[in-house]
């Protein structure tokens, strides 16, 4: 489902700062729960898809390109997101960090969310519309496998402390 709660503007709150101010995320998660959804898609004030309540979002378009919102839209640059970007590029996928709309999401062939605890979660429908054929797609499954192999070999990625 798409949340009615919009993402706070990057100009009002630096998205790279993880603090205890998760009110927006909590409101979005509550909206999803009340709608019977596991997660919600968040739009920014310009109407672009930016993330989930606690996850980053990726779509695969009809050309087979992997798209994810760029950091300048105010997303949190997640550890898992960055690892998936690197793994996708290693696999030779065309990866583009570009703004995309809800319409782009609706017509996507695949969609998945990334997060440290969740890793990669396939999204098969949004707003009662099937994504692709309504099943996890080939790229999603391949990246899930690559990420699992990566974590078995290297452990869960974390950002080094800046001391």
TrEMBL record:
Keywords: Aminotransferase, Pyridoxal phosphate, Transferase. One of its GO terms (molecular function) is branched-chain-amino-acid transaminase activity. Signal peptide: none annotated. Its EC number is 2.6.1.42. It is an enzyme of class 2 (transferase). Pfam families: Aminotran_4. The keyword Secreted does not apply. The keyword Isomerase does not apply. PROSITE patterns: AA_TRANSFER_CLASS_4. One of its GO terms (biological process) is amino acid biosynthetic process. Belongs to the class-IV pyridoxal-phosphate-dependent aminotransferase family. This is Branched-chain-amino-acid aminotransferase.
């Amino acid at each position: 489902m798409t949340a009615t709660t919009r993402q706070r503007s990057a100009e009002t709150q630096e998205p790279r700062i993880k603090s205890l101010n998760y009110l927006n995320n909590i409101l979005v998660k509550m909206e999803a729960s009340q709608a019977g959804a596991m997660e919600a898609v968040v739009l920014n004030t310009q109407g672009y898809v930016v993330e989930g309540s606690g996850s980053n979002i990726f779509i695969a378009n009809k050309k087979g390109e992997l798209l994810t919102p760029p950091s300048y839209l105010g997303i949190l640059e997640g550890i898992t997101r960055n690892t998936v970007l690197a793994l996708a590029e290693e696999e030779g996928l065309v990866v583009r960090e570009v703004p995309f709309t809800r319409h782009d999401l609706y017509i996507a062939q695949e969609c998945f969310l990334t997060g440290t605890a969740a890793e990669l979660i396939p999204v098969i429908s949004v707003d009662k519309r099937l994504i692709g054929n309504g099943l996890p797609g080939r790229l999603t499954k391949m990246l899930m496998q690559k990420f699992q192999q990566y974590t078995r070999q290297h452990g869960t990625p974390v950002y080094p402390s800046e001391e």
